[in-house]
Amino acid sequence: MSAAPIIEVRGLARRFGPIQALGGIDLTVERGCVYGLLGENGAGKTTLVKHLLGQLRAKRGTVRLFGEDPVSDPAGVLSRTGYLAENQDLPGWMRLDAYLRFLEAFYPTWDRDLAASLCGQFGLDPSRKLGKLSKGQRARAALVGALAFRPDLLILDEPSSGLDPLARRDLLEAVIRSVVSDGRTVFFSSHLLEEVERIAERVAMLQAGRIVLDAPLDEILGDHHRLSLRFEEPQWRAPELPRALHCEGSGQNWTLLVHGDPGAWDALAAQRRAKVTGLRPAGLEEVFLGRARGSRP
Q1: Is the per-residue pLDDT at 139 higher than 90?
Q2: What percent of the chain clears pLDDT 90, i.e. is strictly above it?
Q3: φ and ψ of 284, to 5 deg
Q4: What 3-state DSSP class applies to 190?
Q5: DSSP-derived 3-state class of residue 83
Q6: How far, in Å, CA of 90 to CA of 82, rounded?
């Protein structure tokens, strides 16, 4: 019998006045998975995360973490969940060592050795006040607090937006070393696609409150390609081809984001009096941007 999912969302919908933030989404995150959630600003990522953390009650649909409702059992859920967000509030008047001792009181599984190791790895001085730290140092300090009790689930909501490349690298390496290598679960919401592509095993794309793609990363990358075509005659509007998600170009030369069997495109192009001049796998950023642009009128 397989273990229950760490996260299970069914039919979750949410409106804020006339705005539909979530449109009845289904989402499953298995134990030990690194799950990346992609979406443009306003797609509904943060609204979903707030439901996962119990900050919003599901008015329609259900949300379960470890099989429990995070609103009905916040202590049981949050005691097993680490959380890191962009611009996370920290008490600036506290020293880092005092802040970590404060957190330790709430988590029976707190690992002092791990906290000290992470502070050393990040170059953090425990005697400094949090308010005196740079933005990157505050992000590292918040990550120490999210990791030191060895949570079963780590939720990252745009954790490295605005950080310099070194701080982003430190954050990702800490996640990989401290969480992924232990077989625990990571739910990673970000618009920085290179970060998601680096550590995610499964990826979902959220557009206008709906999940439009949810699959293993390898499957997504293997199923999407950049196709270049040269037509015998100039095309004055974007050519319509089956399984083409986005198209750009002009005249005789067009480039398309396509999905499906790459071996079928020579025949499809010939039917439209065109020749394939290039075909290569698409990166995650190309897939995301192509699908996002292709969904707009």
Answers
A1: no
A2: 62
A3: -60, -40
A4: coil
A5: strand
A6: 15
Compute the average pLDDT of residues 237-262: 90
CA angle 185, 175, 124 (to 5 degrees): 140
Mean pLDDT across 44-60:
94
- How much is the pLDDT for 297? 40
Mean pLDDT of 264-289: 91
Report angle CA 18, 20, 21 to the nearest 5 degrees.
Answer: 130
CA–CA separation, 165 and 157 (whole Å): 18
Average pLDDT over residues 268-288: 92
Q: Which token pair is 65?
A: 């973490």
Two structure tokens written together for 124: 């953090």
Among left, alpha and beta (phi > 0; psi -120 to 50; other), residue 44 is left
Predicted pLDDT at 74: 93
Mean pLDDT of 31-51: 91
Distances (CA, A) of 69 to 105, 154, 163: 24, 17, 33
**Average pLDDT taken over every residue of the chain:** 89
Highest mean pLDDT among 24-38, 81-95, 183-197: 24-38
Would you say 166 and 135 are in contact if contact means Cβ atoms under 8 Å apart? no
Q: Quick one: tokens of 250? A: 């002009």
Residues 6+ apart with CB under 8 A from 277: 228, 229, 230, 253
Q: Which of 38, 77, 37, 33 is nearest to 55 (CA)?
A: 77
Sign of the Cα pseudo-torsion (165, 167, 171, 176, in order): positive
d(CA 81, CA 5): 14
Q: Regarding beta strands 244-259 and 7-16, do their DSSP bridges make them parallel or antiparallel, or are they unpaired?
A: unpaired
How far is 16 from 14, CA to CA, in rounded Å? 7
Helix (H, G, I), strand (E, B) or coil at 101: helix
